[in-house]
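Section 5.1 Outputs to date
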Amino acid sequence: MAIVECVGVKKTYQQGKVAVDALQGIDLSVDRGEFIALAGPSGSGKTTVLNLIGGLDDITQGRIVVDGQDITRLKSSQLADMRLHKIGFVFQSYNLVPVLSAVENVEFVMMLQGIPRSERLKRSHAILEEVGLVDLMGRRPAEMSGGQQQRVAVARAIVSEPAIVLADEPTANLDSKTGERLLALMKELNRSKGITFIFSTHDKMVMERAQRIVLLRDGMVVDTVINDR
């Protein structure tokens, strides 16, 4: 059963007087519990697809259904509620709150969800230990390396066990050992909790672990590869 459906999705950006077609009619269906990768060269539309599925940007044409809801028909308040309760995001730029510590950043979404503080702290400590940052949980983003910030961002995205995690190049700033550890954690959450993961990536390590690789080029789906794993 599909948890995400993109039908004829087009996205055009206006750059001055020039219209740039970022997506040219994407059709994509993602089953609940899938672990898939969007791959392709820079500028192929991978990040744009994630942003549109997550309701972070408006589509120009087409339809996107997320967990049974046509998000192109939702009001901004309804989109915000969907993002809060159903979607975890891992951004290339981390998007951590600079004045909050690592543990406070991980807690942040759960706080907005109204989860009691004792439960938030318990989950945050556990997930930071999983990503190897429990000793740095009091540090703010400026006091951490790029790789450490990326791990905090991943921890924040998965700690509340959302239905879908959208991960934009989640291993880009990590060494191979840390990347493997994080991917193993996400794969286990996918297996045990049924969380759907959609990655954009250039990383062979991510693509090897994906059940399916959707190849994009020039804003179009050009191929799909099924992994035997």
